[in-house]
């Protein structure tokens, strides 16, 4: 799981976000050519205030600051688990991948494929930023990471996000059932859709003839990302330490819920919908990356 936030997140659902859309149809919010009709002066005043706020923020510099936590499931034969992730503050890019565990029946560690994808993605994003190719193109990162991983067996999901500091926008590509959630003003305003062929069978990148290729990835862009009342003060280490702690808290809660057979989880509900008997959560590796947009003086 990945959380991209422009304020410290809290669980819950809130107002929908404008200008949030993907390649396979619009998500929450208004389509670019759709205008909301203002019914009363209060709405008009709020609209003017929001416009002023966006203009003011466009003149501010912003930065994505991140922290992460990883809890591999208990398996002495695979102490590294099958998940992988990366954070590049320099490239303003983050990513997660989940190796598909079914390869274990063939003696293949899908974690190696996931780690390869994420290592190559970080190298590619960092190189793009170093040569001035900013903002980093998340789809190009995915394409190149996939190409560099051509000799590795296995398969994995993948989700990569990059932040455009100049425009204040978030660009994401996603294959499978990894994904991201967007929070604004302590409310969850967007959850990326999953790609599955059937229950518990996600789209997956790989070199096998039946695996998916990067062109299967859905692409998303979220505009008007704002730092809100947050400000960037002090060392980056202060932020990353806090975000690591937050990511660890979320991962620990997810771990508890995955092992709680008395808790009706989203995985259990999805199983029931597919006609599969299952109680509780899904015991699996857990990866959480928390990213927050802050105003920055640099």
Automatic annotation (TrEMBL):
Cofactor field: Mg(2+); Mn(2+)
SUPFAM superfamilies found in the cross-reference section: PP2C-like
Top class in the EC scheme: hydrolase
PROSITE patterns: PPM_2 (PS51746)
Boundaries of every PPM-type phosphatase domain copy: 68-293
UniProt KW keywords: Hydrolase, Magnesium, Manganese, Metal-binding, Protein phosphatase
UniProt GO MF annotations: metal ion binding; protein serine/threonine phosphatase activity
Magnesium found in the keyword field: yes
Catalytic function, reaction form: O-phospho-L-threonyl-[protein] + H2O = L-threonyl-[protein] + phosphate; O-phospho-L-seryl-[protein] + H2O = L-seryl-[protein] + phosphate
Tree of life domain: Eukaryota
EC number assigned by the record: 3.1.3.16
InterPro entries per UniProt: PPM-type-like_dom_sf (IPR036457), PPM-type_phosphatase-like_dom (IPR001932), PPTC7 (IPR039123)
Family: Belongs to the PP2C family.
Name assigned to this protein: Protein phosphatase
Source organism phylogeny: Eukaryota, Viridiplantae, Streptophyta, Embryophyta, Tracheophyta
